[in-house]
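Example 5.3 — Transcriptional regulator
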Amino acid sequence: DELLEPPQFTSVSRAEQKSDNNLSCRLATKFSNALKSGEIDVYFQPKINLETNEITGLEALARWQLAGVFVPPEHFIALAENYNLIGQLTNQIVEKSLSHFARFITFNRQLGLSINLSSVELCQQDLPDFLFEKVTVYGLSPHMITLEITETVLLEKNSVSLEILARFRLMGFQLSIDDFGSGYSSVNMLQNGPFTELKIDKVFIQSMHSTDKSKIIVQSIVDLAKKLELKIVAEGIETRQDLQEVIKAGCKYGQGYFFSKPINATHVTTCLLNWEDNNPNNRAHKKATS
Ligand code: C2E
Ligand code: MG
Ligand code: MG
Ligand code: MG
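Solution (predicted structure tokens):
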């Protein structure tokens, strides 16, 4: 196989860079081949309305198995970003998740689909038209689709990315600021981007039960988001205690292992059909009231 061009790292020594590059080149080449052969899979994680206990959406998450082992997305997303493969990845995730989603909504008409985009793609001028066309081909409406943006590089104010975000909004797509509070996903993004949803990073959610500081931070983010009329999603709810804390703070939507891990398309169908009985929160509720 032909090896791909290495990215230029700035913060490592030359020797380290050379061996790092060798390794990441080989991995990037494997990833590129996996893309070409359609091996990248999509899983879905339910998003729950915490007031009604219903599934309101599904988040598409890319999965790559190398020699039978799942490679962590954080790893291959960074690789895809560095090696200019992120566009190809997005194309495949969009294609696969929409085709599954078109079937999922026949079980639940209220369902939405969330797709993750990397901020490095937001200079891709043809991205809005591409997504709009795909959504139309599957007989869906952009209103059903939320684009989750994680900032992995600092976005410049007035850069082309804001124009692309605005075009997405005009088409009717929902826009979510992902991992809010961590990395570069910041107040600056909120100030300048036309977002409709805010997802609070799981680090804050998971430390709410142990530190008052996290409670105060989450409470403040929720208040801020409410004033800006954004939907609020708490990510990383793992325990009943986490759930109680986020409800107390006023989060209306949540995601996390407590409700469901990301699951493959076959499991989504089962999950949608049996949600009322299988939702851990309903189960506990039924036990307490019967
Ligand atoms: P994200 O968009 O913030 O997605 C949430 C991540 O948290 C997912 O990790 C999910 O599996 C994990 N998660 C959900 N609930 C819990 C929980 O209760 N506890 C814990 N510890 N983790 C939980 P995953 O699938 O490993 O993805 C990591 C990141 O990779 C995503 O973070 C997203 O930024 C990126 N990513 C994944 N798929 C794609 C994709 O198709 N395109 C792009 N651009 N990025 C993607
Ligand atoms: Mg996300
Ligand atoms: Mg997130
Ligand atoms: Mg994340």
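Remark. Residues 45, 61-62, 72-74, 77, 93, 116-118, 148, 150, 178-179, 202, 235-238, 255-257, 262 surround C2E (ligand 1) (CB under 6 Å).
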